[in-house]
Specification:
This protein is mainly beta. It has helices at about 10-20, 30-35, and strands at about 40-45, 50-55, 55-60, 70-75, 80-90, 100-105, 105-110, 110-115, 125-130, 140, 145-150, 160-170, 175, 185, 195-200, 205-210, 230, 240-245, 255-265, 270-275, 275-285, 290-295, 305-310. The protein has two helices and 23 strands.
């Protein structure tokens, strides 16, 4: 399938991201939210080509021109939620070149979050495309707290509308963080998966607690022997580790350090990542119940950068 590609500069999106994030109350079902008169639904008419949306609600778009530009609605929920989308109206004729695509994750400059190695689905399964005038009854679901609606509506007067709902996720893995001062624990739940925290801004990352790989005698969650923090674990050939780094795009990761071991005490060192994207990535073989707790804060102006990405 020829998926839509939306070209957006990271700094521009990061500014919109920070300005629009507001966490709403949760509903139990998207269809219930769409149909129940007891739930007050946030209404939104899309007027900008790039929109960041962080609320449950009903969104509308009607093309004001014949412009074939590809645009996008970037949806982000709380870390422990997933995004559900239901299109209740579609008037985007295929004959005009119109197209709508639901993306399981975010796409920026042709790069995806989560990347192909970290996502549980195959690449083609992460895209759902539609056009025409037929109403689609399918509820589109993301695997993490971020999803994207890309659209090309090149005929004036055509458009679409859809409902957004946020659903609890008991095992969050890949997470797009909105708050610059968050503390979060990343876990693999004993599975052979890669999980990540991704922030679209420079940040300082401090490891508060570590239980990854070494120090675990077997696959369990009980307190293990303390090994302290071990550095450069990937270069040592160890299968489980945490990478801290950043890059200029979602698909780029320059690693400052990879750590593993068991350490219940906060690290003294703080990694200052001066890049458009900051990432903490937990790589797990499935042999251990891994967990890492990190604090993410605004970079200190007097701190020495651990990594600087050239603009």
């Amino acid at each position: 399938m020829n998926h839509l590609l939306l070209i957006v500069a990271i700094p521009v999106l990061a500014t919109a991201f920070a300005a629009h994030v507001q966490y709403p109350r949760q509903t139990s079902s998207l269809l219930y939210a769409a149909q129940s008169k007891r739930i007050r639904t946030q209404e939104k008419i899309i007027t900008d080509c790039m929109t960041v949306w962080s609320e449950e609600g009903h969104l509308y778009y009607k093309s004001p021109t014949n412009d074939p530009t590809v645009c996008g609605i970037y949806i982000v929920a709380k870390p422990e939620q997933t995004v559900h989308v239901y299109f209740d109206y579609v008037d985007v004729p295929c004959s005009t070149g119109g197209l709508i695509a639901f993306v399981d994750g975010w796409e920026l400059n042709g790069q995806l979050f989560p990347n192909e190695q970290d996502h549980p689905k195959q690449m083609n399964d992460r895209f759902f495309e539609m056009c025409g005038t037929k109403k689609h009854k399918q509820i589109l679901k993301s695997s993490q707290n971020a999803a994207l609606i890309q659209y090309r509506v090149p005929r004036r007067g055509n458009g679409f509308s859809f409902y957004v709902s946020f659903i609890d996720n008991p095992t969050p893995c890949n997470i797009l963080l909105a708050d610059i001062t968050e503390v979060y624990t990343l876990r693999n739940y004993g599975k052979p998966v890669n999980c990540s925290l991704t922030m679209l801004y420079p940040a300082q990352v401090k490891i508060l607690a570590l239980g990854v790989g070494l120090g675990h005698e077997q696959k369990r969650t009980l307190t293990e022997r303390e090994t302290g923090t071990i550095h450069k674990c990937d270069k040592r050939g160890l299968p489980d580790f945490v990478q801290v780094g950043g890059g200029d795009g979602l698909g780029q990761l320059s690693v400052v350090d990879s750590i593993c071991g068991t350490n219940s005490e906060p690290e003294n060192a703080v990694e200052t990542i001066m890049c458009g994207v900051t990432t903490v990535r937990l790589v797990s073989s499935g042999q251990f119940h891994n967990a890492v707790t990190v604090a993410v804060t605004t970079p200190n102006v007097e701190a020495t950068p651990s990594l600087v990405c050239e603009p």
